[in-house]
UniProtKB/TrEMBL annotation:
It comes from Lentilactobacillus kefiri DSM 20587 = JCM 5818. It holds the Pfam family ABC_tran. This is ABC transporter-like protein. Transmembrane segments: none annotated. SUPFAM superfamilies: P-loop containing nucleoside triphosphate hydrolases. Gene3D superfamilies: P-loop containing nucleotide triphosphate hydrolases. InterPro entries: AAA+_ATPase, ABC_transporter-like_ATP-bd, P-loop_NTPase. GO terms for molecular function: ATP binding; ATP hydrolysis activity. Residues 4-229 form the ABC transporter domain. Keywords: ATP-binding, Nucleotide-binding. The keyword Nucleotide-binding applies. The keyword Transmembrane helix does not apply.
Length: 293
């Protein structure tokens, strides 16, 4: 049972604070969605976790051991990202061989199937791959190397819709055949919403949400009805956004509803992860729709 712990990580580039006191625990066999707007610090965090980038403060540990310069712990993680670790002149078959010896194993059976399903020409050189196939090749490495922690930074970059669907279904299959921990950084929230078990939202270098998806969704309430009734019903609740269509108002509440009585004119339902993300990271100061306060 391995646990990855990120404690008090801060990172600046010059005077720009990119990560501020990040504390996260990644448990065994969970699939985490790492969400955040452009520039929120997701890639920087993943590169710090895998020791490709140095933090100014804090530490990253696997099973209580610092991962920095620690080959046995670093060998438990694979980061698939836009940054290319492989030289353009290397053949894909050679990269697989080198990775296999570096990580001490490779699931050739799965790789052969994925290569066929995605239509990847394995005899090419890395530098000749199109953007989509560059991602596909790195995804195959990520799924086939024997690591406990698979970190995917924008994994479906450049993949067409068919290949994205294929990837998500292969990810679920691979996870159920061989449960391990995945951290998936993505902007395609709707596409991963049914795959991830936990959601982490970074906003300007800080963690603003870190919860099981189930718990998050249970706290998302949309309250729809005549404006006056909706405002009255949601008074004092954590309203994080609203919409108006004519006289009908939707207030979006994040949090528990107390036992207040729901008027007949007002309807309650749940809203999705993407809408929550937009409200939490949008213009509402501190995630609260101040107009309703
Ligand atoms: N090597 C670097 N030197 C200077 N600034 C950097 C460097 N790497 C990242 N940054 C800055 O750090 C901030 C966070 O970047 P990062 O790539 O981690 O964000 P992100 O959440 O992954 O964004 P995106 O979703 O757009 O890929 C950005 O403002 C970026 O310009």
């Amino acid at each position: 049972m391995s646990i990855l712990e990120v404690s008090h990580i801060s990172k600046s580039f010059g005077s720009k604070h990119v990560l501020s006191d990040i504390n996260l625990t990644f448990e065994e066999n969970k699939i985490y969605g790492l969400l955040g707007r452009n520039g929120a610090g997701k890639s920087t965090l993943l590169s710090v976790i895998t020791d490709r980038n140095f933090a100014n403060n804090g530490e990253v540990k696997i099973d209580s051991e610092d991962v920095r310069d620690n080959d046995s712990k670093l060998g438990m993680m694979y980061l698939m990202s836009e940054v290319n670790l492989y030289s353009n002149g290397s053949k894909l078959t050679q990269i697989i061989k080198d990775s296999e010896s570096l990580y001490g194993g490779f699931n050739h059976e799965l790789a052969d199937r994925l290569i066929k399903e995605f239509g990847l020409d394995i005899n090419q050189k890395f530098g000749k791959l199109s953007t989509g196939y560059n991602s596909i090749f790195k995804l195959i490495l990520a799924l086939c190397l024997p690591v406990q922690f698979v970190l995917l930074d924008e994994p479906v970059l450049g993949l067409d819709a068919n290949h994205r669907e294929l990837f998500y279904s292969e990810l679920i299959q691979s996870y159920s055949d061989n449960p391990r921990t995945f951290i998936i950084s993505t902007h395609l929230i709707e596409e991963v919403a049914n795959i991830i078990s936990d959601v982490i939202v970074l906003d300007q270098g800080r963690v603003i949400l870190n919860q099981p998806v189930e718990d998050v969704l249970a706290k998302n309430h949309s309250v729809v009805g005549p404006e006056k009734d909706v405002k009255q019903y949601t008074k004092g609740l954590n309203v994080i956004g609203h919409d108006m269509i004519g006289n009908i108002r939707a207030n979006y509440v994040y949090g528990d509803l107390d036992d207040r009585v729901l008027p007949d004119t007002v309807q309650l339902s749940n809203f999705d992860l993407q809408k929550l993300f937009i409200f939490l990271t949008n213009q509402y100061e501190g995630g609260t729709d101040n107009e309703d306060k």
